[in-house]
Amino acid sequence: MSDPTSDLVLYIGNKNYSSWSFRPWIAMEAAGIPFSDRVVPFDFAAGNPAFRELSPTGRVPVLHHGRLRVWESLAIIEYVAELFPDAGLWPADRGARAHARSISMEMLAGFRSLRNACPMNIRRPQRAIELPDGVMEDVARIEAIWREALERSGGPYLFGAFSAADAMYAPVVNRLHAYLLTSDPGTLAYMDRVMAHPAWKKWQEAALAETWIVPEDEA
User: Fold this and answer.
1) Distance separating alpha carbons of residues 80 and 78, to the nearest angstrom
2) I want to staple 33 with a disulfide (CB 3.0 to 4.6 A). Which of 19, 28, 120, 142 is the partner?
3) In angstroms, rounded to a whole number, what is the distance separating the alpha carbons of residues 146 and 143?
4) pLDDT tens per residue, range 142-181
5) What is the arithmetic mean of pLDDT over 47-58?
6) Neighbouring C-beta atoms of residue 108, cutoff 10 Å
7) Neighbour-count burial for 162-180, b at 16+ CB within 10 Å, e otherwise
8) Where is the GST N-terminal domain (predicted)?
């Protein structure tokens, strides 16, 4: 069994574009969990072949903990939450924790119209685009999720303190901001709080320093 105090290495894609990498990264960073990251860029048309050496799916993110490999964003977050139960990745209250996991799974499985039309792009200047059907329906559902959680918890984040649920929706914050998808004051205030978080700022700084361009993610 791997030692929880040994090094955790999170292999991720480009910080500018990789929404699935962003989720476990910001969850771990915000919780103060010690880890290192390794960027393996999307710089091949058919995907970087190095991914296959790191993960059984040939995709990132993947967490290496000694000989153990944990892949998929939410599975990584759950694994680290077990390693560091005092880090507060999930709400302490059982009902709130169930709610947080439910909306995190909804993010994992849903909102495909939004994700396909509006790729995460940290350095993208704010600009609206013509939207296909389904995008604004996704946005409305996300805003309803955030509104309900914030009303129940009182904020400042979805379940009070920054949690795994906020991490799962962090790339959506970028999407709504970059593509000008909302004008709701409550939504914008929550987005501002997330984007002001030190973990967000640290990721953003690294993303802005990257030079790789992925044309299909430059919507």
Assistant:
1) 6
2) 28
3) 5
4) 999 999 999 999 999 999 999 999 999 999 999 999 999 9
5) 71
6) 15
7) bbbbbbbbbbbbbbbbbbe
8) 8-88
